[in-house]
């Protein structure tokens, strides 16, 4: 037990140090991510992940970084005495953007995720096809990333793996509002959503210090990947895949990082 607590403290103190280097204007920068980058990057060919670092000096961490994301998660990772996640998401008007790299939903202020006693506000969430993280070398049809920020500018990303099964009603509301042609423009809807409906009831997770999975690949992210996937229908996966046949970065080396597994 003492070893588990020590691992938790060492890991999260290291994460906290790295994360506090994030800008205090992170909410603004995250919400602005729908704007077209001056440097065009993508997921295939010369603009793909293997060449991101060559596209701009600002993207150098994509190659030189030692704490990159996503990763392959070993489900037998060290079990640790981690505080339970506390999710307090309120309702939000649906605001959807096709930014050319994913479908992003900007969230109304006032919804929070508490990790290790620290509160992070939900800023936006977006999707990847197929999943970026793998579990025991297994990928999933899609992955949801919910991006949060705290008052110090540090941020945490909650990763939810999506598997084929029953239709998700909240996801269907989002899909119906997808702007197919108006890239970079936020489309507001009279629909109200609650991101809680995109989460499993079991919030046990894997946690590690990582990076953004897109350029500039900054290494200042608390990653919390939920152990239990959420069901979405095959049609819902295909709807996204028609717009984004592949928008997932390959897994990166864990190197010497701790990967911890919460256990109830």
UniProtKB/TrEMBL annotation:
Domain Alpha-carbonic anhydrase: 39-264
Cofactors required: Zn(2+)
Pfam families (UniProt xref): Carb_anhydrase
Reaction it catalyzes: hydrogencarbonate + H(+) = CO2 + H2O
Superkingdom field: Bacteria
Signal sequence residues: 1-18
Keyword annotations of the record: Lyase, Metal-binding, Signal, Zinc
EC number from the UniProt entry: 4.2.1.1
Record SUPFAM superfamilies: Carbonic anhydrase
Keyword Cell division part of the UniProt annotation: no
GO molecular function: carbonate dehydratase activity; zinc ion binding
Function recorded in the entry: Reversible hydration of carbon dioxide.
UniProt-listed PANTHER family: CARBONIC ANHYDRASE
Sequence similarity: Belongs to the alpha-carbonic anhydrase family.
Protein name as annotated: Carbonic anhydrase
Species lineage: Bacteria, Bacillati, Cyanobacteriota, Cyanophyceae, Nostocales
């Amino acid at each position: 037990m003492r070893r588990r607590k020590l691992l938790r403290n060492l890991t999260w103190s290291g994460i906290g140090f790295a994360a506090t280097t994030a800008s205090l204007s992170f909410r603004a920068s995250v919400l602005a991510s729908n704007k077209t980058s001056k440097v065009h990057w993508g997921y295939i060919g010369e603009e793909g992940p293997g060449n991101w670092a060559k596209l701009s000096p600002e993207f150098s961490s994509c190659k030189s970084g030692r704490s990159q994301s996503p990763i392959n998660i070993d489900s037998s990772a060290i079990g640790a005495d981690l505080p339970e996640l506390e999710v307090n998401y309120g309702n939000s008007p649906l605001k959807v953007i096709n930014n050319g790299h994913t479908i992003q939903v900007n969230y109304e202020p006032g919804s929070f995720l508490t990790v290790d006693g620290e509160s992070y506000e939900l800023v936006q969430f977006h999707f990847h096809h197929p999943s970026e993280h793998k579990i025991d070398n297994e990928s999933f049809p899609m992955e949801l990333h919910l991006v949060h920020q705290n008052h110090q500018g540090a941020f945490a990303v909650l990763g939810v793996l999506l598997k084929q099964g029953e239709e998700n009603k909240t996801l269907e509301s989002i899909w119906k509002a997808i702007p197919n042609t108006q890239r970079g423009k936020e489309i507001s809807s009279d629909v109200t959503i609650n991101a809680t409906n995109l989460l499993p009831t079991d919030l046990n997770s894997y946690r590690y210090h990582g990076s953004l999975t897109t350029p500039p690949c900054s290494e200042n992210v608390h990653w919390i990947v939920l152990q239990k996937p959420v069901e979405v229908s095959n049609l819902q996966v295909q709807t996204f895949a028609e717009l984004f046949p592949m928008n997932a970065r390959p897994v990166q080396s864990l190197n010497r990082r701790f990967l911890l597994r919460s256990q109830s």
